[in-house]
Amino acid sequence: MSVDKTIFRGRKQPQTFDFFSGETKPQHWESAEEIDRYVPTHCCYCGVQCGMYLKVAGGKVVGVEPREDFPLNHGMLCPKGATAYQTVNHPDRLLHPLMRRGGKESKLERADWDEVLNVIVERFQAIQAEHGKDAVAVYSGSSLTNEKCYLAGKFARVALGTKNVDYNGRLCMSSATGANERSLGLDRAANPISDMLHADCIFVIGANVGECFPIVTSYLWQARDRGCKLIVADPRQTAIARTADIFLPLRPGTDSALLNGMLHVIVKEGLIDEQFIAERTVGWEAVRDLVEEYPPERVAKVCGLRPETIIEAARLYGRANAALIYTARGLEHQSKGVDNGVCCANLALATGNFGRPGAGYGTLTGQGNGQGGREVGQKASQLPGCRSIEDPEDRAYVASVWGIDEADLPHSGLPATLMIPAMLKGEIRACFMFCSNPMVSLPDQHTVERALRGLDLFVVTDFFLSETAELADIVLPGTVWAEDEGTTTSLEGRVIKYNKAVDPPGEARTDWQILCEIARRLGKGDYFNFSSPREIFDELRACTKGAHSDYWGITYEKIEAQNGVFWPCPTEDHPGTPRLYEKRFGFPDGKARFHPIVYIPPAEVPDDDYPLVLTTGRVVYHYLSGNQTRRVPFLREQAPIPWVEMHPQTAAKLGISEGDWVEVTTRRGTMTVPALLVSSIRPDTIFIPYHYGHNEAANILTNPVLEPMNKIPEYKVCAAAAKKVAGPPEWAREIGIDALHQAAARRRELPIANAKAKPEVR
Amino acid sequence: MKQIFLDPSRCIGCRSCVAACRECDTHKGESMIYIDFIERENTVATSPTLCMHCEDPLAPCAQVCPAQAILVSADGIVHQADESRCIGCQNCVFACPFGVPKFDVRGNYMRKCNMCYDRTSQGKGPMCATVCPTQAIFYGTYEEFIAAGRAKQGAKPVNQFYFGAQPVQTRNYVVLTEEDEALDLMALAQEATKGYLIDLPAASAGDNAAPWVEADDAGIPVRAAPPQPWAPRQPEPMPRVPGKPEPAPTH
Lengths: 762, 251
Known about the structure:
By secondary structure, chain A is of the alpha/beta class. Chain A has 25 helices and 30 strands. Chain A starts with about 35 loop residues before the first strand and ends in a 16-residue tail after the last helix.
């Protein structure tokens, strides 16, 4: 070495949550970190639950290392996963309880745990004494471990005695739940993701796999290497649609018409599996007669497609030996989401595509524990193990495990989306919320804000001050996933385990500790005598014994030994069930059900005032309400503000050019965002990502019309108008023009600066 | 010898590689891989760019370095400039056929991909290829690439490039089609800049799209939606609280 290098290394980076905030770059970096431990765990974000190692040094999480031994992702991570560890030491973390001491108008001030817990208990008891037990609601989430989700349901029903407990999965996959329960009898994707490698045809409808479940894309590509055909239906050309064998750019909200039309073709061409239908299903005749009335020529007119492509897609799907259907929020976030899912199941059942490798239908669950969260009894109408709260046997069994009198167990309560109208009517007067950010995630944001501000007592647990926590009377500091252990259930139905890497910072406590402590102060401590997640899991296992989603045979040791266990797993020597329906479906007679589905148009269709269709969705850099990912500098840098995607033809009619600020209006509200002109979207449709809060929330615009069975809102279709406005809205004025230009230089595909890069002609 | 195979047809533009590159110990905090959207107005196609580690001619960046700051190790990895030698002349930046080295003005040194030398020299894969969710960036030997079934369906890895009459052979491969023997980048560049938006392929996203009509007009059975519990709000919006979000409390 010519020169002693150490003289060049004067500026050592301090150990921070991120290396630079996008403004300043380090001049040199050489890592001198010495890692104490590599903690095997999983990503905290979407339902894929990729394995990863967290690097721990000096009692802090300092980095991530790909975990190549986990069989689903083999080390692969998306940008959210690669940066997830940066939320652990984030400076925005809440470190102690906060409370408004002088009423709603006062500021959130630091308080101590004893004080806030006493206030919560006193006020809850007073409200319940005055307005009845059900006046206090528990609103939980699905990005929690199974243990916490389970405890949320038990806490509401046993400690508070309220029937009103529900969770944010209501906004996420409740349509898929409805479809699975109506058609197949078990609420789980039928296949492990690895089954994609055995499929001859994969039909992805309403799922932006590339951006929402990036790791699953690798399975799609591997399947295609083996000759599998890919059909994608989506109003936008997504990353997987770009090279798909058939891309169906359907009009938003017409999925059930398309699926009926495809089944019509399959029946006409004799591609149904008559033996399978006769032996393993009931109700085929009604469906066959109904789809007779959905010929592809007419369906194509409704879906905004060419009829030949529908026929071609139906043939490709129908002729495959083994075919998979995957759906996600695009198809489920509709006022007929359950219908759409049932249509998919009809298609798969009619062609005999169940119970074999590479044959099935499944939903790609969006939330980290979206699968487990919807099984363990935090839903309004459900007890642990997908048991029904109205079924006398299930009630008696769970009451016996909990050691309570069955008569004291409340009946079914309000789903999350109906809590908002109930709050406005004064039926719900206090709310205990954790792991949720409805001020981004619920539709019709103005109404949601009015409802939450009107509560007598609003308690929010979170580890960052979310848009919702800003409205709370009391904010409790929670923990991130790396600070506790517990199980989650991935989108395959694989129960996996988070391991604890570090202790919580400051006075932060885990959700289960908070719930147990409040229960103790409510005088119900005997039912919440837990000292670790393992004890909670053991009780959860007992509750699910013999139920649909049977966790009885799953233990922490088995999860570790097998890299996860697929439920149902009825005994301790049972290996788990990766593929469902090999012998029988989930109904008592073992047969699947066909349901004829008549097409229901979207609740709002475009008219003269609102001539466009607005659809919302995710971007790869953000997770759900963005409360975590918008605080990670790398992710924030990539997608700092929302935008509206619009076809150049539509933009030309409206006089809008790239980067212009566009006011998008619906019957619910207005927001102003910059325009991104792309041909990858239908000309009659515009798209806004929903991850942002305050005046940047796309859900200001969306339609709160609910699916009748499972009450999921219609996020994906509403009528909208767009017009060009002169300048940026108030919230964007603080963003310096230099910063916008820098951002545009970094990411040319975003319209964040009103300047289009022009290529130079040589 | 393990090398990287870049397959832009698989890339979904998620920038996982960019995020993970920053986690590598040899250049923590800086990313040395680039994802570009190609014709975003027409398509969502994206492409990764990283150092190809030229084999023949061997590392043009290192050959033009007057200070011999760029080391080519015996295993063929072209390293980033040794900052104790780098004189900041930027010759390497201009010499690279692929435009990979970036000059850090404030740091006064060149940075580029070194194949995560701390990891690859110990038998682990580089960060970008390990995390790539679609395996558009594949790390392994040529034989492993073929064995993984990646050269089926008309794909072929190519490591021969032409810049005019100048051939360049690289350690890393790009995945092209069966017909391709080499990639003539200069010809592509000339074609692309002959005139903007001339000869570009049209957007394919709308190929199967058509105008639509109401279900009644199309003649398929329709059911009315049931009545709604959450009545859509009346037109007058409740004013949102103006101003900034409440600042996070100080600890």
